[in-house]
Amino acid sequence: MDPVLVTGATGTVGGSVVRQLVAAGVRVRALTRDPASARLPAGVEVVGGTFTEPSSLVPALRGVRRVHLVSMAGDGPQVAETLARAGVERVTHLGHDDPSKVDDDPFESWHRQFRKAIEASGMEWTHLFPGEFMANTREWAASVREEGVVRAPFGDWTTALVHEDDIAAIAVRALLEDGHAGRTYRPTGPEPVARRDAVRLIGEALGRPVRFEELTPDQAREHWRGVYPPEVVEWFLEIGGQGGDLGWVSPDVERVLGRPGLTFARWARDHAAEFA
Ligand SMILES: NC(=O)c1ccc[n+]([C@@H]2O[C@H](COP(=O)([O-])OP(=O)(O)OC[C@H]3O[C@@H](n4cnc5c(N)ncnc54)[C@H](OP(=O)(O)O)[C@@H]3O)[C@@H](O)[C@H]2O)c1
After folding, report:
1. Which end of the chain, C or N, has fewer beta carbons within 10 A?
2. Which domains are delineated in the chain?
3. Which distant-in-sequence residues (6+ apart) come within 8 Å of 22 by Cβ?
4. In 121-229, which ranges are continuous DSSP H helix?
């Protein structure tokens, strides 16, 4: 069987795509910018390459017809063209799309370039534009481990956080089955989760309470200084101040996988060791 190339294979969703393909008995080739430090399951072929130099992708594409593509800053149009020219027929594209934003919005522009280039490439495509990842709460792991506390703004911020395994499971279906071409899936979790409840559920998974200390926007600016670029911090504070999307739940996980999405309580148990 021809190998499936997984980009972002060292990342949250890509890592799960790799594990699920391996479990399904599929040959997997993984792309990373740093093959020496990538830790991937036995049997996975690891190949170097970067989207910022699309020609560097050519060795990874040899003999490949299906690709899981994560959009990261890079030359989207050149990346899509390189894939199509190498003979790739089917792409699952993990990215982000906010139709309310203009094309040159700094957080949209490169995502949008990837999306448009993929759609124009002639390859079969399936977009995955998920809601907020449960895995983003890993940001809290150090303070939970060291002090039993989470410090964050907007305790009432509520979104239907999504488990990376559900996003990856949809990608795997779209890579291996027909019937997903030209579809855009927007997977979310099965239920709205407020920030302060996510903290409580991490405590329950650990078997000890975890405190939530709500930061004011100014305290959050200080807390995130040096962790995220200033414009990203301001973006977080802007969307946080709007209260989140109030927990909109997408039907896509259940529709594609035929079962409800995995809950945050389940995610917290799956990842408890990282917080312990
Ligand atoms: N986090 C969220 O809540 C959220 C929500 C909706 C959509 N998304 C989208 O989901 C995608 C994944 O985001 P994430 O934050 O979870 O990242 P991630 O997948 O955990 O990590 C990024 C991955 O991209 C690879 N990568 C980075 N730059 C690259 C480049 N120039 N060329 C090739 N590969 C590169 C990295 O591989 P190496 O380091 O091994 O090279 C790494 O595996 C993004 O498109 C993001 O916008 C995220």
Report:
1. N
2. 4-129 (3.40.50.720), 134-161+189-250+259-275 (3.40.50.720)
3. 28, 41, 43, 44
4. 141-147, 164-176, 195-206, 217-223
Q: Which atom of ligand 1 is nearest to the CA of 8?
A: 43
Residue nearest atom 19 of ligand 1, based on CA coordinates: 11
Can you name the residues that pair with 47 across neighbouring β-strands? 31
Q: Is 254 exposed, middle or buried (0-12, 13-18, 19+ CB in 10 A)?
A: middle
DSSP per residue, 10-76: TSHHHHHHHHHHHHTT--EEEEES-TTT----TT-EEEE-BTTBGGGGHHHHTT--EEEEE--SS-H
11 pocket-lining for ligand 1 (C-beta < 6 Å): yes
Atom of ligand 1 nearest to the CA of 13: 19
Is the entire prediction scored with pTM above 0.70? yes
Which residue type occupies 136? N
175 in Cβ contact with 18 (< 8 Å): no
pLDDT in tens, 166-217: 999 999 999 999 999 999 999 999 999 999 999 999 999 999 999 999 999 9
Neighbours of 122 (CB within 10 A): 11
